[in-house]
Amino acid sequence: MRIRDEVRAICLALPGATERLSHDAPTFFVRKRVFVQLLDQGHHANTFPHLWCAAEPGVQEEMIAAFPERFFRPPYVGHRGWLGVRLEEPIDWDGVRQLCADAWQMINSR
Q1: In a structure prediction context, what are the per-residue pLDDT tens digits for the chain, which is 110 residues long?
Q2: Contact partners, residue 22, CB within 8 Å, separation at least 6
């Protein structure tokens, strides 16, 4: 539950952010659009806790190339540039906070 509580606190601190379940996973919205989805129990072949977050064009490729042990291309939304983020210990919460804020900014500005 710690991961869920931390991600919830990070996302809901962003202006106008709301949470509801989508596909049985905590999902965070701004202006009725998803910016982060938490899969803390894993998803299909990715059995580790992780989140999917919106990302600007090119960020996904850059982060996966630089840190393949932490980032991945998520199913369903990866083709749109979203970034998969492993949430395995030790978790860089400042990094997660920045990624969520960047995702919020990208979705909120459209």
Answers
A1: 699 999 999 999 999 999 999 988 999 999 999 999 999 876 666 678 999 999 999 999 999 999 999 999 998 888 999 999 999 989 999 999 999 999 999 999 98
A2: 34, 37
Do residues 78 and 44 touch, judged by C-beta distance below 8 A?
no
Q: Where are the domains of the chain?
A: 2-108
For the segment(s) 2-108, the CATH number from 3.30.70.120, 3.90.1150.10, 3.90.1150.30, 3.40.1260.20 is: 3.90.1150.30
